[in-house]
Structure formats: structure tokens, C-alpha cells
Recover the amino acids of this structure.
């Protein structure tokens, strides 16, 4: 299958899939959406946009991964939330892609994200130390972000010592660019699947004419 590479960026990306997924009752990476695992849905959308992709996942993944996609676990144990996954992604990027200034992160549970996500976030950056995150329909989607490798140690320290570990609180402390994405025909591209009910809504959306 050929990919449209017009929106490809020279960036590495990490799929964040390290949560407990308690409401789904199984790892989200292996949840089937219209017969296709979520991890496969996300990779189909992400791979054409970037130079390399890895997956942050704590534990085994039942779905076979392509041989060129690495998997790594959180470097800070304890399931401490999405910032722990992002901190792990930054450390992974420092080690595996030392030339990269940023890493793109996307969550495992949002299969309709824009096909120009990486390109538009990248265009929003003004400096090598700036964070760029997605915004749509009046809502912030910070897990869809470009994170500078230069803040790796700062973010790790925040995750280890801030009791609440709120993404918005961390962004407020740093130079952050908020990049607007459109909601098309009422469908938010950042709709995420947290429960079986959300999964049914996503299936209806995929099957709509």
C-alpha cells in the first residue's frame, strides 16, 4: 500500500499506550475498532506523517507490530499518567534519535486525528525549545504535541515530584504554542475512546456513509 507523504515531517513519533485502560477492560492497543486493532488504526494514520514511530506500552501487546517499530515502557514506574509517558518518549528520543529537537506524541485511543497533524504542529513552532500542542472546538488536546528534547530532565523532575502531574500545569510553566485544528461537519478529529460506549460511537462514525 502506498502512502501519501506530502505531509511527512523529519520527526520521530511515539504512540502513548501505557495507561491501565481500566474502563475498557483490556489494553487499548488491542481493542478492535471495526475489526482492526486500535494500534493498527493509529499507525496507519501516523506512519506516513513522520520519519520513525515507536510505542510506549507497559506490558505485552497481543497485536503483532511491524519490525521497524520499537516498543518501550515508562522509565518512571507506577502508571503516573500521560506526562510519565511523554517523559519516557523524550528519553527514548534522546537515545534513539540524537539529532531530533522534538518528538511527536499521540495517544492510542484517538483514531481520527488529522493526517497533517505533524506538519501543522511543526509549522507552529518558533524555536527548538518550544512545545506545540493541538486545540480544536474550544478544547485542548495536549497529548497531541511536539515536545522538545531539551526539556527531558525538567519534565522527568516534574513527574517525580508534582503530586497532581497535570499536563496543563506543566504547559503553563513553559513556552507553549497552541495550534488550532478544525472540527469538520461536527466531527472532532480528536475524539477519544475511553469506554465501550465510546468505542460504539467510533464504530458508527467509521461506518457512516
Amino acid at each position: 500500500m502506498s502512502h501519501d507523504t506530502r505531509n511527512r515531517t523529519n520527526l520521530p513519533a511515539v504512540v502513548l499506550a501505557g495507561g491501565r485502560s481500566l474502563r475498557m477492560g483490556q489494553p487499548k492497543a488491542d481493542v478492535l475498532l471495526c475489526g482492526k486493532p486500535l494500534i493498527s488504526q493509529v499507525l496507519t494514520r501516523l506512519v506516513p506523517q513522520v520519519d520513525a514511530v515507536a510505542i510506549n506500552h507497559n506490558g505485552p501487546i497481543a497485536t503483532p507490530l511491524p519490525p521497524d517499530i520499537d516498543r518501550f515502557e515508562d522509565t518512571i514506574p507506577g502508571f503516573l499518567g500521560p506526562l510519565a509517558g511523554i517523559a519516557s518518549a523524550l528519553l527514548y528520543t534522546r537515545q534513539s534519535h540524537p539529532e531530533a529537537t522534538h518528538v511527536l506524541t499521540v495517544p492510542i485511543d484517538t483514531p481520527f486525528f488529522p493526517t497533517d497533524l505533524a506538519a501543522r504542529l511543526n509549522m507552529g513552532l518558533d524555536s527548538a525549545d518550544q512545545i506545540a500542542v493541538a486545540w480544536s472546538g474550544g478544547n485542548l488536546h495536549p497529548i497531541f504535541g511536539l515536545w522538545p528534547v531539551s526539556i527531558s530532565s525538567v519534565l522527568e523532575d516534574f513527574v517525580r515530584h508534582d503530586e497532581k502531574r497535570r499536563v496543563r500545569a506543566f504547559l503553563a510553566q513553559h513556552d507553549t504554542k497552541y495550534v488550532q485544528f478544525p472540527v469538520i461537519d461536527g466531527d472532532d478529529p480528536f475524539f477519544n475512546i475511553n469506554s465501550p460506549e465510546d468505542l460504539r460511537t467510533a464504530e458508527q462514525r467509521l461506518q457512516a456513509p
